């Protein structure tokens, strides 16, 4: 059928053990695996480093895990055009090491050691999304293997295929339910000459976030920790000067440093990880939610809250009274009783897209919103 390695307990996807684990080393091999799986009616779940494999729901079935980590090549780096094309199994940190030699960067940071494909498939982003955007903003092309083994390319800097779909945006955050991402092209940025972090004490965090947002200092990121500590990143040739102005703006308890605080860019601890989106002004209320520890991008209005399995149902219900809240990670015993995704107004449209791209619902079945 196809070459696979022995399956171990560690290959299980949220408790669902696959029959096969396949490690293609070329796009053609990945397409051949998908084609055989299609012909045999087998379900497929893609996996990179597995750092976010516990995000989303457990698959209803998993015959084949496609491990993309041997798809780890830099295909083209057009440094003069600030564009790079890479295979999906390449670790993001390895890509940054390559780009650093030419003074460039992919301006995406992640709390976890993701592969490129995993970062795109889960739409993950870190603190600097405030200035540079998230994966969908920097992705300018994508190559995907469809459910039947067909290879679909968005083409270099052209992000629409003949059907009119913006493939980059469509596949970003799709959790492997629409196809297997095998290559991606990104817009790059020069490495900043300086990076300076301004950190405050825990007093009046909402006011300080608003002061930074309404200033002309252009921080690359504004993060907050659960004790009310606010930290901002300034980048560029005049970063130190802007940081000193930020210290003056924020007042007593603020200081500048060339190193980030220890919590910078990390998820909060807890059995359950929640992602909440709202306005920066929602920060004050979120900091008062009982039995949680908040951390995240105050400037972008995207926060993560850690909580216990016992408190999670109450916390989620409370948060959803006002703000969209997704359960990113939770113990399996909560999956049956806790709605991981919450209300989704566009669910009917998403189902139609799923039906068109994966008519037999064999790709990561049940992993995404509404059991898609």
Automatic annotation (TrEMBL):
<dbReference type="InterPro" id="IPR006094">
    <property type="entry name" value="Oxid_FAD_bind_N"/>
</dbReference>
<keyword id="KW-0274">FAD</keyword>
<protein>
    <submittedName>
        <fullName>FAD-binding oxidoreductase</fullName>
    </submittedName>
</protein>
<keyword id="KW-0285">Flavoprotein</keyword>
<dbReference type="InterPro" id="IPR016164">
    <property type="entry name" value="FAD-linked_Oxase-like_C"/>
</dbReference>
<feature type="domain" description="FAD-binding PCMH-type">
    <location>
        <begin position="13"/>
        <end position="191"/>
    </location>
</feature>
<dbReference type="Pfam" id="PF01565">
    <property type="entry name" value="FAD_binding_4"/>
</dbReference>
<dbReference type="InterPro" id="IPR016169">
    <property type="entry name" value="FAD-bd_PCMH_sub2"/>
</dbReference>
<dbReference type="InterPro" id="IPR016166">
    <property type="entry name" value="FAD-bd_PCMH"/>
</dbReference>
<dbReference type="InterPro" id="IPR036318">
    <property type="entry name" value="FAD-bd_PCMH-like_sf"/>
</dbReference>
